[in-house]
Amino acid sequence: MKQVVIENPILNSPFEEPQRYFKFTEDGITDEIIAARLVSQAHFTGPDQPYEKVQRALRAEIDESAWAALYSTTSYPFDPPKTGKIAVKVINHYGDEV
After folding, report:
1. Which residue, 98, 96, 92, 90, is CA-closest to 48?
2. Residue 73 and which of 41, 44, 46, 56 are 20 to 30 A apart at CA?
3. Cα atoms in the 13 Å half-sphere on the side-chain side of 40
4. pLDDT higher than threshold 70 for residue 24
5. Pairing of the two strands 21-25 and 28-34
6. What's the rounded Cα separation, in Å, for the pair 61 and 55?
């Protein structure tokens, strides 16, 4: 793996979600900065009418057939990354990350 010297470290706040990241490739870390993470799948479940809560949070109407696809705990099929690693973030209906 080639060594990369980072001359512009990213300083994210410890009190909020990171806003910027260094890009990783198959060869390792690069000095390229990405402004946001990409979410490839999101699913919503839980009690207390999550459909209405998501609509209120987004301040938008959500198509009911689209919601039916999101209201699930089953992932969509995807090709595994070459690294063999994926990241999963679970947030319960109280907003706690687990």
Report:
1. 92
2. 56
3. 10
4. yes
5. antiparallel
6. 6
What residue type is assigned to position 1 of the chain?
M
Residues constituting the chain: 98
Q: pTM for the complete prediction? A: 0.43
Report whether pLDDT(1) > 70: no
DSSP string, 52-97: HHHHHHHTS---HHHHHHHS-SSPPP-PPPTTS------B-TTS-B
The one-letter amino acid at 56: R
Best CA proximity match to 88, nearest among 66, 69, 73 = 73
